[in-house]
Amino acid sequence: MTRKVIKAAPKKTTMKKAIPSDIDTQAGYVRIEDAPLLPPPPSEVGVTGWLYKNIFASMSDFGSVSAALKSVFVAASTLFILYFLVTQISGLLDFAIFSAVWSDPEGLKRQACWTVEQGGALPNGWHAACWPFIEAKAKFIFYGAYPNDDLWRVNLTYALGGFMLAWVMIERLPYRKIVGILLLTVYPVMATVLLTGGAFSISTGTIGGATILGLALITIGRLGKAGYVSGAFGDLALVAGVCGWLVILFAAVLAVFAIDFDLEAIDTRDWGGLLITLVVAITGIVASLPLGILLALGRRSEMPVARFLCTVFIEFWRGVPLITVLFMASVMLPLFMPEGVNFDMLLRALIGVTLFSAAYMAEVVRGGLQAIDKGQYEGADAVGLSYWQSMRLIILPQALTHVIPGIVNTFIGLFKDTALVSIVGIFDLLGAAQSTLADAAWSTPVQGLTGYLVVAVIFFVFCFGMSRYSMFMERKLNRSHKS
Amino acid sequence: MKKLSFLSALCGAAMGFGAVASANAATTLEAVKAKGFVQCGVSQGLPGFSNADDSGKWTGLDVDLCRAVAAAVFGDAEKVKYSPLSAKQRFTALSSGEIDILSRNTTWTMTRDTQLGLNFAGVNYYDGQGMMVPTALGVKSATELDGANICTNTGTTTELNITDYFRTNGMSFNLVAFEKADEVVAAYDAGRCDVYTTDRSGLAAQRGKLTQPDSHVVLPEIISKEPLGPVVRQGDDQWFNIVRWSLNAMINAEELGISSSNVNMKKFQSKLAPSVARLIGKEGKFGEELGLSNDWAYNIIMQVGNYGESYEKHVGLNTPLKLARGVNSLWSKGGILYAAPIR
Predict the structure, then answer these.
(1) Which residue of A205, A346, B66, B112 has the fewest C-beta atoms within 10 A of its own C-beta?
(2) Which residues in chain A have their CB less than 8 angstroms from residue B56's CB?
(3) How high is the pLDDT of residue A276?
């Protein structure tokens, strides 16, 4: 129940005061003109004013012993922090920019970043970034072993995704809903085809079978709607109708996957670097939210079987470390498969990461559901909404906006957790960078620092971006209760 | 039968060993020919042995072995796909059939050979654990290292070997262990320890990361035997033979003086030493007996080169690793490389 706070709007009273007629306006002691407006004191405006208010005010009170002590303490810690920031930032800038080696025109590789002691030309004690190393390894860090001739496919996928995402996020553009739906349905299929090359060997029989099954289910659904199915099975028939559409959609996706677009097939083993990180993170993020919502609803459901299953699922996935999940998927799963049946390594990791983060997401969403007042549920029931209607229209919009920080937290955590896939031999951003560090042709004392710096910056850009967008969403949905 | 193999796989895996997968319906060679490439398990980046170069292409001594097998099977050394594997994954990946050859600087030990359902097809590099110390320490032999601080990686056999060595020689020491090789090097470079120990090829590879690479010296003592070689699944002798003889062909080619630059010439010479004629397929049907074409070894030498060429290209004195041949020379040149003859 949202309580409406009615603010008593203060009525603006006119400030012009009428001078009572019985006062002699000629008398010398009555002021009939406003005093001239003086400029604000210098401690309130301009740079000095800002500095005083925000920095010095807290350290210039020496009125009592305790206040003086506090002022001194504040001043000392301010100075310390300032000193720390200046040295650290200048050190970082010096390492990354001013002292760094930027180019290697002669193709000397590691010699370009060697000091005199090591046999190079740089002064002894030099310690800064070696950017030619990153330049040489950029392709590997961003795309892994993806063939050079086909990089346009990755770039096109990025460009399309970025374009559609931007369209959905910019509020002034028309058709945002349509673009959003395309982004979630057509785009993943397109991206899969572009990145892998498509033309999977899916038999016409499978597609045909799925289509017929879908049509049959839809027919059952229609019959149920028309009232031909007797009472108890009526609901089941409606569910069958919905499933039918899903099956048809699935068949359509399979059909697209089976088309040969004349793109060279590229094994996921050749993918790597930022590409893997983005594929794993985005798939995990997009798939875990709806899954998590369903799990959360299931856990709060009144149907004991559904509740039990969801609880077991959530507690199982929350109870195992992601490393274990990935390790099981990569080491144990192949042993259980019949010889010759190989499940793509990346797909295994994707499924593991998605289910793992869905469990966390479910608990975040459950937190939001619990924050909703019981009256909201009852109100929804009272106006005759079905369970799904009340969830879709009343409960979830409120619950989800409450937990935006938690959801984004899970997203950011997931994004960083993708680095764990490197332990099962998939070269994510961090794994690819680490493997380039092993290249003896570039080995210098600063090789590792340079590589890790790049990885850190890339991770920061993505995570910070997500964080800022979530703040924007919170402000827009006005959930911070600050107004 | 299928259920049984599933159960055995489960038990084997549960015990922490790679389990023997069910008997192959098709041989590995047939399967490899059907899919059109050799799936080769490599490291996640080990300079000189298996490492992705600037364009992401895998190169190295271990990689060349896989390329040699591809050249022997398909006549095309490029028909290889690589699976970078962590040390923990490597044996399961092989026993589950995800890869056809494991060529990932794997030490041949009795436990691995007998308990994992795998076979070592030969040795393509004889490594050994060595020690590096700063020249300033003035140490000439490892026996002078009593009381030293030693930097190494955690949880590897190097830790075990160094402990054994110091105990055997009745010396005290203090172990400083780190998770990643980079950390070990950084700690050693910062002077936190007197000795850096790992495989000698690793010492050579990491030397470039030191601030003053020339003021460190590798001690003469080698404290463990690390014969590194390709591994295949047990139970497919044909594939085992192909891998073993691909390696042997490279070593024999060096011994006979056949390299990628002169093998074409030899092919058209009418008068050839019989051993050379047999190697490059002008005499006998050695390839057919392996289930390959008779010019299998010719293709290896032509496209990959002989062992010496591969060595010099990836780990030799002109590479950043600067590893001298040492024990990895031919037996006729003072080393211990000795390949069985082709006849």
Answers:
(1) A205
(2) 139-140, 143-146, 270, 272
(3) 93
φ/ψ of B305, rounded to 5, equals 100, 175
- CATH number assigned to the domain comprising residue A419: 1.10.3720.10
B226-233/B118-120 β-pairing: antiparallel
Q: Is residue A78 part of a domain?
A: yes
Mean per-residue pLDDT for B76-104?
89
Task: Give me the residue label for tokens 């409960």.
Answer: A395
A331 contacts on B by Cβ (under 8 Å):
13, 88-89, 92
Amino acid B1: pLDDT: 35
Top residue of B20, B33, B61, B96 to mutate, by most chain A CBs within 10 Å, is B96
What is d(CA A451, CA A137) in angstroms, rounded to the nearest whole number? 9
Question: What architecture does CATH give domain B21-126+227-333?
Answer: 3-Layer(aba) Sandwich (3.40)
Rounded to whole angstroms, the Cα distance separating A334 from A322 reads: 18
Residue of B nearest to A273 (CA): B56
Q: Which range is least confidently modeled, A80-94, A98-112, B251-265, B327-341?
A: A98-112
- Residue A331 C-alpha, separation from nearest chain B C-alpha, in angstroms: 6
pLDDT digits (tens, 9 = 90+) for B35-84: 899 999 998 888 899 988 887 789 999 999 999 999 999 999 999 999 88
Does residue A239 sit within a domain? no
**With contact defined as beta carbons under 8 Å apart, do A372 and A344 qualify?**
no
- When CB atoms are compared, the residue of B55, B96, B215 closest to A148 is B55
Q: Indicate the Cα dihedral angle A214, A218, A224, A226, nearest 10°.
A: -160
Q: Do A423 and B320 touch (CB under 8 A)?
A: no
- Output B334-341 pairs: Cβ under 8 A, ≥24 positions apart: B336/B126, B337/B251, B337/B307, B338/B251, B339/B247, B339/B248, B339/B251, B339/B252, B339/B255, B340/B248, B341/B252, B341/B275
Positive/negative CA dihedral, B265, B271, B276, B278: positive
Alpha carbons A353 and A347: distance in angstroms, whole number: 10
Q: CB distance A339–B97 less than 8 Å?
A: yes
Cβ contacts of B19 on chain A, cutoff 8 Å = 335
In words, the CATH class of domain B129-224 is alpha beta
Contacts of A447 in chain B (CB under 8 A): 209
Tell me the residue range of the domain where A67 lies.
46-98
Q: What is the pLDDT of residue A121?
A: 84
Paired tokens of A263: 């793109």
Please judge whether A445 and B54 are an interchain contact, meaning their C-beta atoms are less than 8 angstroms apart.
no
Q: Where are the domains of chain B?
A: 21-126+227-333, 129-224
Chain A residues touching residue B182 (CB < 8 angstroms): 437, 448
Sites in chain A below the pLDDT cut of 50: 1-9, 12-15, 483
pLDDT tens-digit map of B270-314: 888 999 999 999 888 999 999 999 999 999 999 999 999 999 999
Domain count, chain A: 2
A chain contacts of residue B22, beta-carbon cutoff 8 Å: 338-339
Among partner residues A118, A339, A425, which is closest to B84 by beta-carbon distance? A425
pLDDT for the residue numbered A19: 57
Coil vs helix vs strand at B198: strand
Cα B78 from Cα B303, distance rounded (Å): 9
The nearest alpha carbon in chain A to B186 belongs to A445
Closest in A335, A339, A425 to B44, CB measured: A425
Cβ-based contacts of B320 with chain A (< 8 Å): 110, 440-441, 443
Q: Which residues pair with A130 in a beta bridge?
A: A101
Contact predicate B86/B94, CB 8 Å? no
Please indicate, yes or no, if residue A20 is contained in any of the structural domains. no
Count of helices and strands (H, E) across chain B: 14, 13
Best to test chain A binding among B15, B51, B54 (most A CBs inside 10 Å) = B54
- Which of A337, A424, A443 is facing B320, going by the closest CB pair? A443
